[in-house]
Write a structure and sequence with these properties.
The protein has 12 helices and 4 strands, in the order E-E-H-E-H-E-H-H-H-H-H-H-H-H-H-H. By secondary structure, the protein is α/β, with parallel strands linked by helices. The chain has a 4-stranded mixed β-sheet.
Length: 382
């Protein structure tokens, strides 16, 4: 029979000095034996007074993260006991791993002591404001990069990806027509029904035509279309670019000398700027048709009366206001979607988080922009 295998960690007392001798392979497959050996070694500290300790690891042939954690656990146990110690015999190739573990990378950071509710609330508000500021700076930086790419394309129009733009125009525009038409038609029906239900009490049923026409053409049409596009096309853009980022296709484009903003972002952005005004027009017509249909069937307002009243209630600038907003809404949605896609990391969690963030930020900024436009058009009396 061969000689018995030396223990992974042996402890021996030499007067007031405690000597630890490590042997063998300190790796994950030996984790149970290592943990027991370290616990037994630390138990020797309780057997009597120990002033100094020496840890001899010259017999350790292999060391991985688990073994380094066990060695660090032994060292920390000696520190907590107030024993002076020194480590000898450790091979130089194992030193960086043990040093990294000693810096505490394996430990969960201690929880921050809980303060007052008011103080914690102010801290959360401050962190949120700081994050909003960082997002605003990133957005401005991304806008600058896209504008730079756009200027290069204007200087060299043949470099623009026309095929890609037409492809995305078909996806974001043509394929979105059915759902946009259905949603705006239903919105027009609901507005007309609610208007007739309440205006009938005052004998002012015909004024529902004014409400449907002005509200749809100035505000609701472009707003509903923009929200639908942000949820449908914006999320798709973020997911596509995020997946390309995860598969390092964006880095591959840079290596080949292409600007990702020029190749990936501009065609999507231009397709949205073209598609959203067209979808807004289609949505406006469907909403007016739905309002007119409900006014006829529910309010007794014939199509002739509805159209005549609509001509009196709205002017050309009512239609222009909604259409002027549409390209700006499209630019906001496209920039936010592509920016969030380019920020995706290497995990599926990051992709989901940035896709959600893209939709939320785009809808929020679209509503904010609509409010700013409303104040601007009121200021210029339009």
């Amino acid at each position: 029979m061969g000689a018995a295998q030396a223990p992974l960690l042996a402890a021996a007392r030499n007067g007031r000095e405690l000597v630890f001798v490590g042997n063998g392979r300190w790796i994950a497959t030996q984790s149970r034996a290592l943990e027991g050996a370290v616990d037994a070694g630390l138990a020797e500290l309780q057997a009597g007074e120990v002033e100094t300790a020496r840890i001899d690891l010259s017999g350790v042939r292999s060391l991985d993260t688990v073994g380094a954690v066990m060695a660090d656990r032994l060292i920390r146990g000696l520190e907590e006991a107030g024993v002076q110690f020194h480590v000898v015999g450790l091979e130089q190739r194992f030193r960086p791993l043990l040093d990294e573990i000693a810096r505490g990378c394996h430990q969960i950071p201690p929880r921050k002591p809980r303060g007052s509710v008011f103080g914690d609330g102010l801290e959360v508000i401050g962190e949120t404001v700081a994050l909003m500021g960082q997002d605003a700076l990133r957005f401005l930086s991304f806008v600058g990069a896209v504008v730079e790419a756009m200027l290069r394309v204007v200087a060299r129009p043949l470099t623009f990806r026309w095929t890609s733009m037409v492809y995305h125009l078909e996806r974001t525009g043509l394929r979105a027509v059915p759902i946009i038409a259905l949603i705006t038609f239903l919105i027009g029906c609901i507005i007309a029904q609610q208007g007739i239900f309440h205006f009938r009490k005052f004998g002012a049923t015909t004024y529902v035509v004014d409400m449907v026409g002005i509200l749809t053409l100035r505000e609701l049409g472009v707003l509903i279309v923009s929200i639908m596009v942000a949820g449908r096309s914006g999320s798709a853009f973020t997911a596509e670019l995020g997946s390309m980022k995860m598969r390092e296709e964006v880095d591959a484009l840079r290596v080949m000398g292409f600007d990702p903003n020029e190749v990936l972002v501009l065609p999507r952005l231009v397709s949205l700027i073209i598609a959203v005004p067209l979808l807004t027009f289609i949505g406006n017509m469907c909403a007016l048709f739905g309002g007119g249909l409900v006014a006829w069937l529910y309010g007794g307002i014939s199509p002739e009366i509805f159209l005549n009243r609509l001509r009196e209630a709205i002017a050309l600038n009512t239609f222009e206001v909604g259409m002027i907003k549409a390209p700006f809404m499209a630019a906001i949605i496209g920039l936010i979607a592509c920016m969030e896609g380019m920020r995706v990391g290497g995990s599926a969690e990051s992709l989901g988080a940035h896709t959600t963030s893209s939709v939320v930020k785009a809808i929020f900024l679209v509503i904010v922009a609509d409010g700013l436009f409303a104040m601007f058009f009121a200021a210029i009396d339009m």
